[in-house]
Amino acid sequence: MSYLFYFLPEIFILSVLSFVIVLDLFLKESKKNISYYILQISLIIVFLYLFSLLFQKNISNYELYDISNFTNLFKIFTVLLSIIIFYYSYSYLQRFKIYKSEYFIILIFGLLGMMIMVSANHLLILYLGIELLSLSLYTIIAYNRTSVRSSEAAVKYYILGAMSSGFLLFGISLLYGITGSLLYDEISSVIESMNFNNQDFSTHSIGLIFSLIFILISIAFKFGAAPFHMWIPDVYEGSLTPTTLMISTLPKVAIFVILIKLTSSIFASLEIYWSEMILILAVISVLIGNIIAISQTNIKRMLAYSTIANVGFILLGIYTGPENGYEAALFYTITYTLFTAAVFGLISEINIGDSSLEKIDDLGGLNQKFPLMAVMILIVMLSMIGIPPMLGFYAKFYVIQSLVLSGSTVLAIFAVIMTVIGSFYYLRVIKVIYFDDENTSISPSLYHLISYVFVLTLFLLGIFPNLLSTIISFAIGNL
Amino acid sequence: MSLGISALIILLSPLVGALVLIFYKDKSEIKSSVIANISIFISFIFSLMLFIIFLFNSSTTYNYSNLVWFESNNLIFTFGLLVDSLSVIMSFIVTFISMFVHIYSIGYMKNDKSFNRFLIYTNFFTFSMLVIIFSNNFLQLFIGWELVGLSSYLLIGFWYKKPTAIYANMKAFLVNRVGDIGLLLGVILIFINISSLDYMRFFDSLPDLSNTSISLGSLSFDLLPIIALLLFTGAAAKSAQIPLHFWLPDSMEGPTPISALIHAATMVTAGIFMVARLSPLYDLSAYVLDIILFIGVLTAFLMGLVALVQTDIKRIIAYSTISQLGYMTVSLGASYYSFAIFHLLTHAFFKALLFLCAGSIILKCHHEQSIEKMGGLREVMPYTYYTYLVGALSLVGFPMFSGFFSKDLIIDLFKFHGDYLTYTILISGIFVTTIYTFKIFFKVFFGPNKLKIKKTDQIEHSDVIIIPLLGLAVPSIVIGFALFDSALFNDFFKSSITDSGRLETIYNDFVRSSLSFTLHSFLTFNFLALVSGLILSYILYYKNYQIPKNVTQKLESIIIYVKREYGFTHLSDVFFPRIFNNLSNMLWKKTDVAFLDNFIVNGIANRIRIFSSSLRLIQTGYIYHYAFTMIIGLLILLLFFYNF
User: Distance from the CA of A346 to the CA of which of B70, B238, B271, B307 falls in 20 to 30 A?
Assistant: First the structure.
């Protein structure tokens, strides 16, 4: 039974979930928010437990399940961000009087899926984790089921998601056929033993590359890399703002972790192939994301395309390889995640009349009415462009630096040009906030201390970027 | 460690004060000024504490540089604190003056709508200045340098609806930009050569660098003098030395407390401070020292003359500031850095005092600034009268006053070393200084009361204006004497400035002690120049002796020439603007509008917009299109890698 120890956080979360599902049935309508508080508290407990694990010296690895410091740090980050997301979701749902405990229950299922998939050392466990995450995402997108857009987005994502799951399974089965195993370590040692000069390799090479492509495409779909990005704008626009906040942040980090885990273990010896594929995806994503974002008028759609562009940047970082690239890419991912969380959090707290914020133009003259809110959005937008004292600058800097160091100067120039183009749509938000006529129907919710603290923390992190980059070096070192 | 923590408190307290004021909802004047004053007061108390500790044991230095700001591959940038005798004495000066100026502002800026903004700026300025003072690397120095430039800009243009203020702050900012480029180039050169920006690393590698040279085409230069010269450009702009001095007189458009704090006592001395801080570098760059000496002598004498022909009370004191900064630069050029810092110290007190007196006079005269229109204020404002007298005597270097110990020391240096040309020029500087200082004194406080200002029952202003005057008058009298034997010549600067050996020689062979130095001074040319200046000033401005017509007519053209600052005014206000206007007009019309805007910027932007709006049509919303795109993507990847 001692190996149950490895699953302790997951088991704990699952038991709390089961308890809350049953408990919720017996709660009166007015007291349903008790479920929220129980879940929030259990997240904090998990966070503390995971944090204490960091300082334990000798954690041996169970072969199916990886609880190294790397995944542990990932889980700490995810749980921490979940707590913030929960806060935003709760305040949003309460404000629009659409609170149901199921929302949070489903969110936690998604969280559980992510924790399982990053810890997986076995392709089937990975698949189960991804499916658990995806299923809860399908559901949560359709949460606002009276809205046509919401249901449409959920159905689209569900069908396309099913396709991508098919790809993943097909890739896994090819891999199993060639290597005879589903464990990362075994597969990678089998592939490693097929030398490039060896006859054995060339007969299997087509199969291997095909499986690589299928698995990669499935991951690219979840990640939102072009040309597998089509679901992103519709889903972002269709779901509630806190749902968008969740979809645009946590799964990205999880998928990123999967990507670097797979590329550094199973496919380590196929680097020349996957790096080129990732390069293709990266260039298309940066191009499409940045250019289409320019002509968007809906702020969530605009941010959806900006997500695609950012994913492209992350992929550019991964492309340059494990030495410098992974660190840069992880730094970029964390920065992107934090700032996207901040921007969607701020958006979710702004009401336009009785509905939530949709159009960029609705932000007109926010500065005159709510200068502090305007400053927060300003900070976040500047960081997303990559203006120096902000964290976003260092993220872009590290990625471009790793491109230069790996000798792809042309790509670095491309990245810089695309950053300039991308700054247009972020700057437009700032322009609308500061220079346009006042929109009288804006009314932010009254209480947003958490947003301020959150953005201020991000700002301070930007002033001392070394804090974050030290943690990231530590994490990558423990990969 | 406690040194580091105290320095950190000194540094951060004004910043915290500024931040609190920014986010502070209740904008009442009293509460705002209490917050600002408390934050500065905390800084001052800790500075005073450090200063006293260092008076007893000046050899302790504390250098903390472990806070890594940003690192990437081989680049590491750190923040740190350097606490030694130099930074401690500077922080003492800055917080001391800042504290009294803050108190003074309560009275002076009363009823100003933007009082809160004023306090935020001054607090922020104090913080920026302390960043320079406590920095232990060039990066932090540069950041502080830019921050004080910014706060100076904001404060000169504080009354932003006044066109002259906007003109002045623009001018100050642009001139400082020239210096900043020099400073930045110097810092970059250092970084290229030792790939570190730490002072200590730099000082340690000086012996190696002294053999390095850089080549520009076929020319080859020694590295260190180039660095020293570039850094001095920055210092010259900040400390208003010829030819980058002309922003300072215009900066008097700002509120008078600001002139006292920034443009007399603290910020303008940043250049002097930097050179003293980098004394090991300047010791190794001999001919740069000659240039510095030359510039200093020119500034000290010529700008004194300009002060003589001005009529605006603040402008006279401003030119006097430039001239006094010239004396400090002279001392740097002679590589007696400690004397420069000592003069900086005394000058800060008496010049801030003079400015605050001027502010008090201006306030009483309903914002009239021309001394020709004033008169007879001695009866009306006794406190200002006596404190001005103290400041004036200190400025002209009357024996036993603070300014005497620092200024005469610098002048006597050249007698000691036998450089009689410089000595003569500097002594004539004393003569000029005395005339213009007492010109203000006689014209403002004596003669008929032209503005008909009545004496009121209460003392001339409120306490908040009187207290700073008295508070600054005390050090203007005593601090020179108090620190002469016990600090300056007691190896106070030994651990931070490299000229202690020279100081010892001059003390043993020439100065001997403060008392003998004072007694001796009555028999020198310095005192003669002072007394004759005083007498001349008395005759001209108290007795109002009319100079014969034919002499004035001959003098007229010279006065006009001097008033135009020997052509610098023309250069800065007409010549350069015209050149740049023409150049930028040409660039604007030919290059920018015709080529860049229409063709590149708008052209590309239009293309991208068209591209973008056609590309977004891919997003049809039909799910089978989406699925189709995915399949196409899959096929492309498969085909692309099929060849392997």
Answer: B70
Burial of A276 per CB tally in 10 Å (0-12, 13-18, 19+): middle
The predicted model gives B40-65 an average pLDDT of 85
361-400 of A, contacting B, C-beta below 8 A: 394, 397-398
Three-state DSSP class for residue B627: helix
Number of Cα atoms under 13 Å in the Cβ half of residue B208: 8
Tokens coding A5: 């120890």
Q: Are A222 and A162 in contact (CB under 8 A)?
A: no
Sign of CA dihedral B362, B365, B366, B372: negative
pLDDT at A337: 93
Question: Do the Cβ atoms of A230 and B626 come within 8 Å?
Answer: yes
Token pair 């015709």 in the structure block, residue: B594
pTM for the model: 0.79
Q: How far apart are CA B375 and CA B453, in angstroms?
A: 9
Task: Identify the closest residue of chain B to A276 by CA–CA distance.
Answer: B641
Residues with Cβ within 8 Å of A9's Cβ and at least 6 positions away in sequence, in order, are A46, A49, A50, A75, A115
- At B270-300, the pLDDT tens digits run 889 999 888 888 888 878 888 899 999 988 8
Which two three-digit tokens encode residue A308? 């695609």
Name the E strands within A14-86.
none
- Give B221's strand partners: B214
Q: How many CA atoms lie within 13 A of B547 on its CB side?
A: 11
Which residue type does A242 have?
A: P
Q: Which residues of A touch B72 (CB under 8 A)?
A: 397-398, 401, 469
Residue A442 φ then ψ, to 5°:
-70, 135
Q: Which two tokens stand for residue B47?
A: 């500075």
Q: Characterize the bridge pairing of strands A355-356 and A350-352.
A: antiparallel
The CA-to-CA distance between both ends of chain B, in Å, stands at 64
Residue B267 has a pLDDT of 85
DSSP line for A269-305: GGHHHHHHHHHHHHHHHHHHHHHHHHT--BHHHHHHH
Q: DSSP of A79-144, one letter per residue?
A: HHHHHHHHHHHHHHHHHTT---HHHHHHHHHHHHHHHHHHHB-BHHHHHHHHHHHHHHHHHHHTTS
- Among A218, A157, A142, smallest CA distance to B626 is for A157
Could you report how far apart the first and last alpha carbons of chain A are, in Å?
A: 26
- pLDDT above 90 covers a percentage of chain B that reads 5
Give chain B positions within 8 Å (CB) of A276: 641
Mean pLDDT, chain B, integer: 83
Per-residue pLDDT, A197: 52
Contacts of B628 in chain A (CB under 8 A): none
- CB count, 10 Å around CB of B411? 25
Rg (alpha carbons) of chain B, rounded to whole number:
28
Closest-CA residue to A394 (of B560, B294, B77, B473): B77
b/e per residue A407-443 (b: at least 16 CB within 10 A)? ebeebbebbeebbebbbbbbebbbebbbeeeebeebe
Q: Which residues of B20-30 are buried (b: 16+ CB within 10 A; e: fewer)?
A: bbeeeeeeeee
Edge-first strand listing for the sheet containing A355-356: A355-356, A350-352, A442-444
Using CA atoms, how far apart are residues B103 and B97, in angstroms rounded to an integer? 10
Q: What is the mean pLDDT of chain A?
A: 87
Is B22 touching A (CB cutoff 8 A)?
A: no
Q: Which residues contact B150 (CB under 8 A, 6 or more apart)?
A: B128
Q: Which of B439, B455, B441 is nearest to B364 (CA)?
A: B455
Q: In whole angstroms, give the CA distance from residue B485 to residue B490.
A: 6
Question: B329-339 burial string, b = 16+ CB within 10 Å, else e?
Answer: bbbbbbbbbbb
Alpha carbon distance B426, B408 (integer Å): 10
